[in-house]
Each structure stands twice: as structure tokens, then as C-alpha cells.
Design a protein that fits this description.
By secondary structure, the chain is α+β, with helices and mostly antiparallel strands. It is built from ten helices and six strands, in the order αβααβααβααβαββαα. Keywords: Cell outer membrane, Membrane, Signal, Transmembrane, Transmembrane beta strand, Transport.
Length: 441
């Protein structure tokens, strides 16, 4: 029995004396919710990845400039040959033809000739209908990706809010449990004195010890909740592992519920705007494919420098127009048009699914908001009643007028009431945040 008492005493002393957060030497950071959201927007990897997609879309816009900018190609070709026909042509191109080169003996047995051909070719688009539509599509796709990036920021913001409020909840629950531990420790000491004096049976003394052990176990679990929430925040905010986060915010309850219809979803919500824009992208994709069936007209300019010694000799140029018309490509274009139409329908269905799902989520969040507010009122009343009941039974227990099980029941009810109130406040704050998220406010 003495060993058991000593073990309980050590556990209580260790639990009350242990730090709630990180060990000494770690950096402590006091953090408000707005500061956490700002840090997430600046540092979160998921948000940065989404912004990189916007950069990719911007790069595709740059690529689309080929629809109106010229393409310039510089090439250098070296040839060694004794082919009679090629040798004569190369001499003509190098401007070194002589009368003797037309001697049949020389023509039939041509000498080996070297040729360096320096060529510059400029291709200027004149009429490429599909490329022009493709450029417009690139701009539209960038707008859609910007909307999705904004929604990603909002989603990460909601996750940060949930973890931040979860950290506050765990700390409040630990405070409630620690208060109960101190109360139960005092009652356990009273029970020990009563048992020693022969006023209480051994079972009553052990019951208080068991309840104390339960509270210690709950405290250890709450410490894990704090560490888990802190680690999650550090990952989302990209903080060092040695940082200890101390939230400065609280679970604030508004006097008035947010206004608005239970089914109100903003048409300007980021993801809905993105799905609308994706429909435009799909329509432009179809237009671009249809435009590819039209003729393409390009102008070109080519200059050539031929010599047996690089960068010298004869030069020439050619200027012209090139027209290409894809008359039939084995039904490939028809298949691409069919695919683009299906993509447009997919974007439309995604939009409708997101909108209808959001209405359901808004209704759910509003119900949760109203219910949690009602729960707060009930929990506050229950907490006050449990406190009064516990105070009364505690005074009765000290005078021997109350049984141990009555004391344990009242203490357990009081602790449970405090945690119920904390949970209801957490649910209210999260329901409010989710309501704003799904409404697109």
C-alpha cells in the first residue's frame, strides 16, 4: 500500500511539474491565427506548388507568341564530295566556276571539293488561325489556374485554422484536467487520512487513486494532442522543429450568428470560377482544333553562303510564301474535336458537382453552427451546476457526510462539463470557418 501511495505521488508530482510544451532551450513563438494564416500563405509548400502552376501557365503564354513572332534558324553544313553533279553545283554556289570546269574530262572525273554552307532562315507566320486561338486559350487557362491557386490558399487556410483551434482546445482541456488533478489529489489525501483513521474502507481510498490515475492518463493524451497539433502547424508554416508554438488566440463566440441564406454560395468562389473558366478553355480547345483544318500561310526568307573556306565565297537568298492545308488526316482531327467536347462536358459537370456539394456543405456548416451555439449554452449551464454540486459534495465529504463514489461522480461530471464546453466552442469556431470557406466569403 505504501509503495502504491509513493507511485501515485511521484506520478502527480511529475505530471504537475512537467512542461506542457517543449523542453527548455527551445524557441517559443507566440502566434495569433491571422499571423499563422499569413505565414501559411508565404511559406506553405502546397501553396507554392499551386503558384508554380500559375508560372507554368504564364510560360505557355510566352510559348504562344510563336503564333505571330518569326522563327529564325542559323545552320552550318560541311560537305566533301567528288560527285560530278554536286561538284559543279557547289562551284556555282561558291562563284568559282571557270570555263575549264565544263571540260568533259573534268566533268566526268571531278576533283574533290569542300563546301561550307552557312544558312539563315526566317519563317514569319502570316495566317495560322489555330495558333491565334491557342494563344487566347493559354491566357484563359492561366486565369483558371489563378482561381484554383486562390482556392488552394483558402483550403490551406482552413486546415491551419482547424489545427490552430485544435491546439487551443487541447491546451484548454489540459488546464481543466490539471485543475481536476489538483482537486483529486486533495481528496485523495483526505481519503488516505480517513483510511488511516479507520473511517474509510480500503476500496474508497483505492477509488480515489484510480480516478487520479485516469486523470493523469488523460493529461498524457492531451500532451500528445498538443504535440501533434504543434507539429502539424510547424509543417504547414515551415517552422523549425525546435520551435514551440503558443497560440495567443481563443475560441471566441459571436453574439450574433452570421447572416445569409443557408443555401447561399457565392458565384465568385474561387474554385467555381475556375471550373467556369475550364469550360471556356475546353470550348477554345474545340475551336482551335477546328481552326487547324484551315490552310496555314507562312512567309520565309533564306540566305546561303557557300565557300570552300568558312564565311567566304558566294552568297544567295530566297524569299517566298508557303501554304499548307491538311485536307484529310485519317479522322484524327474529328477525334480531337470529339475529345474536346467531352472535356467541356466534364468541366460543366465538375462545376455543377462543386456547386451542389457546396450548398450541402453550407447547410451542414450552418446546422453545426446553430447546434454548437446551443450546446455552448447547455454546457455552460451544466458546468455551473456541476461546480455547485461538486463544491457541496466536497464539503460533505470532508465532514464524512458524503460517500466516496458520490465525490468521484461529481468530480468526473465537473471535468466532463468543462471539456464539453471547450469542445462546443471549438465546434462553433470551426463551423463558422467552414461556413465562410464553403460560401466563398
Amino acid at each position: 500500500m505504501k509503495v502504491y501511495k509513493a507511485l501515485i505521488a511521484c506520478c502527480v508530482a511529475g505530471a504537475l511539474g512537467s512542461p506542457q510544451l517543449a523542453a527548455a532551450g527551445d524557441k517559443t513563438m507566440k502566434l495569433s491565427l491571422s499571423e499563422a494564416l499569413t505565414m501559411a500563405r508565404e511559406n506553405n509548400y502546397t501553396i507554392k506548388a499551386a503558384r508554380s502552376k500559375v508560372d507554368q501557365a504564364e510560360a505557355r503564354i510566352v510559348q504562344s507568341r510563336q503564333s505571330y513572332l518569326p522563327k529564325v534558324t542559323l545552320s552550318e553544313t560541311f560537305v566533301v564530295t567528288n560527285d560530278p553533279g554536286a561538284a559543279l553545283v557547289l562551284k556555282l554556289q561558291q562563284n568559282i566556276v571557270q570555263q575549264s570546269d565544263f571540260d568533259p574530262a573534268k566533268l566526268n572525273n571531278a576533283d574533290v571539293i569542300n563546301d561550307f554552307n552557312t544558312s539563315i532562315q526566317v519563317m514569319q507566320p502570316v495566317y495560322n488561325a489555330d495558333a491565334a486561338i491557342g494563344r487566347k486559350m493559354a491566357f484563359t487557362a492561366k486565369t483558371a489556374q489563378e482561381h484554383m491557386t486562390a482556392r488552394t490558399e483558402e483550403s490551406i487556410g482552413l486546415q491551419v485554422t482547424r489545427v490552430y483551434y485544435g491546439l487551443i482546445l487541447a491546451r484548454k482541456n489540459i488546464d481543466a484536467i490539471e485543475q481536476s488533478i489538483r482537486t483529486m489529489q486533495a481528496h485523495s489525501n483526505e481519503a488516505a487520512r480517513g483510511f488511516s483513521a479507520g473511517l474509510l474502507p480500503k476500496s474508497d481510498k483505492l477509488s480515489t487513486d484510480v480516478r487520479l490515475s485516469e486523470l493523469l492518463e488523460q493529461k498524457m493524451m492531451m500532451h500528445d494532442e498538443i504535440k501533434n497539433a504543434t507539429d502539424a502547424l510547424k509543417v504547414m508554416l515551415r517552422l523549425d522543429s525546435g520551435v514551440t508554438i503558443v497560440p495567443t488566440g481563443d475560441l471566441v463566440i459571436d453574439r450574433v450568428l452570421p447572416s445569409g441564406s443557408d443555401k447561399a454560395v457565392s458565384e465568385n468562389r474561387s474554385d467555381l470560377k475556375a471550373y467556369e473558366t475550364y469550360q471556356q478553355v475546353a470550348r477554345l480547345q474545340e475551336e482551335m482544333i477546328r481552326a487547324s483544318k484551315r490552310p496555314r500561310l507562312n512567309a520565309f526568307l533564306q540566305t546561303n553562303l557557300h565557300s570552300d573556306n568558312i564565311f567566304s565565297g558566294g552568297s544567295s537568298w530566297a524569299l517566298g510564301m508557303n501554304m499548307q492545308w491538311n485536307i484529310f488526316d485519317g479522322m484524327a482531327t474529328a477525334g480531337r474535336i470529339q475529345e474536346a467536347k467531352a472535356q467541356e462536358r466534364e468541366a460543366m459537370y465538375n462545376y455543377e458537382a462543386a456547386k451542389s456539394g457546396s450548398i450541402a456543405e453550407v447547410e451542414k456548416s450552418m446546422r453545426s453552427l446553430k447546434t454548437s451555439r446551443a450546446r455552448i449554452a447547455v454546457a455552460q449551464k451544466s458546468l455551473e451546476e456541476a461546480r455547485v454540486s461538486l463544491d457541496y459534495i466536497s464539503s460533505q465529504f470532508k465532514t464524512g457526510m458524503a460517500m466516496t463514489f458520490e465525490l468521484l461522480m461529481r468530480e468526473q461530471a465537473h471535468t466532463y462539463a468543462k471539456m464539453r464546453l471547450n469542445q462546443a466552442k471549438f465546434d462553433y469556431c470551426m463551423a463558422k470557418s467552414e461556413l465562410a470557406y464553403y460560401r466563398g466569403n
